[in-house]
Amino acid sequence: MKKIFLSILTLGATVAVYAQSNQAPANAILVSQTRSGDVVTTRYKIPHNDGKNAEFDMHYAVNRSAIVPAYSDNTQQIAELKEFMEQSKDSTMHISAIHIVGYASPDGNLKQNDTLASQRAQSLYHYAVNTYHPSQKIDTSHKTFSWNDCVAEVEKSDIPQKTMVLAVLQSTNHTEPEKEAALRKMPESWRYLTTNILPKMRYADIEFDYGVDEFVTRTTIVPNTEPAKPVQTTPQPTTTQPEVIVVDEEMGIIVATPRNDYEDGDSKRSQRKARKSDKKAAKGGYEAIYW
């Protein structure tokens, strides 16, 4: 029995992707962008129109083409189909195609089986259209199984006279009616076929090709650009020592000392300077001025 191939994702779910680059995917649509400190968070929506598949089966009684909810597991399949169609209303989900195929088991008249398979496809088509009103076009087809299509199920079963049954099913020298006649001559094997294998081949399935938009979050480290800070100049400490200028002269060394480092009221020092000045002037030597 065919089931849903892929679990239906919770629509609108966010897929978080962390990257060192802020390069957006090629078909991404920007949703939002925020910044917190050095971290820039960008959210994109990536549209998807296909890539996923969901399939639901409706089973039918022998020689019947009307959907009976209580038959086989139809109740569960109808509930799952309803849930899927409710989810398809989400704006992030996109159904791209819908296919319906009707099937008939190989027992019975081939022409009647072909008609029965077509009728089963049409019954499911009308159920889907009248119940859910899909906007997408629904294509339909049908198929009648052959006896050779039963081989896989028989091989994994515990059917009586399995070897003989497989030999009949795989024979290339007998027509479909001849194979059925041979199988009916093995009552226990025929009973097993009609109870456990053939009913699974009387169904119609509806298949959806769809896609779900993906939301991707990217984070990028972008350092803050701070303005240049003014250069801080450190004031030089005021010297407490007197500035000394040394000049080599022919008559000796002159030492100049800032005037404010001495007290004008020091009369002895003033008198000593005056006497030295007078002696040099009298000898006609170099005249120096002391502060």
Topology:
Blueprint: E1 14-16, E2 29-36, E3 39-46, E4 52-59, H1 74-87, E5 93-104, H2 110-132, E6 138-144, H3 151-155, H4 162-169, H5 176-184, H6 187-197, E7 203-212, E8 214-221, E9 245-249, E10 252-256, H7 267-283
Parallel strand pairs: 1-8, 5-6
Antiparallel strand pairs: 2-3, 3-8, 4-7, 5-7, 9-10
Q: What is the alpha-carbon Rg in Å?
A: 51 Å
Helix content: 25-40%
- The CATH topology label of the largest domain is 60s Ribosomal Protein L30, Chain: A
The sequence of SSEs as H and E is EEEEHEHEHHHHEEEEH
Which second-level CATH architecture of the largest domain applies?
A: 2-Layer Sandwich
Number of domains: 2
How would you name the oligomeric state of the polypeptide chains in this document?
single chain
In spatial order, strands of the major sheet run 1-8-3-2
Distance between the termini: 120 Å
The biggest beta sheet, please? 4 strands, mixed
How confident overall, as mean pLDDT? 80
Class based on secondary structure composition and strand pairing: alpha+beta
**Overall CATH class of the largest domain:** Alpha Beta
Q: Could you list the spans in which at least 5 consecutive residues all have pLDDT below 50? A: 1-21, 242-263, 285-291
Number of helices: 7
Query: How many β-strand runs?
Result: 10
Beta-strand level of the residues, as a percent range? 25-35%
Shape: elongated
**CATH homologous superfamily descriptor of the largest domain:** OmpA-like domain
